[in-house]
Amino acid sequence: MKNIRFTFLALLICNLSFSQKKRTDSIKKSNIKKVDTTSTILKTSLFKMHPNPAKDKLFILGTNRIKSIELINILGKQVATYHFNKSIIKIDVSELKKDIYIIKVIDENDKVETKRLVIE
Hints:
Blueprint: H1 2-29, E1 47-50, E2 57-73, E3 78-92, E4 99-107, E5 112-119
């Protein structure tokens, strides 16, 4: 009876080691693609704004100093232009009519970014 148990354990161990070797061989042979991470460029936003939609005040936080801000209505007409030299800005938008606008921000490095702004 001990011989049968020993034989069973020996077969079990051999089968496990054989199956593990077989799995690693199949992993080595599998088609693993190398990913090139050096060419990935992450775009960082020049500014964040809140609240959006806005009613009375709009707060803008720039990653760099903001040189100018333009508000453009949906028809493409420039509604307002603001000039600054700071990174934290509060704009009174209570005079603007309820509409969808494009806000165009130019930072101190002359980088430009536009976002959609809703005025309620």
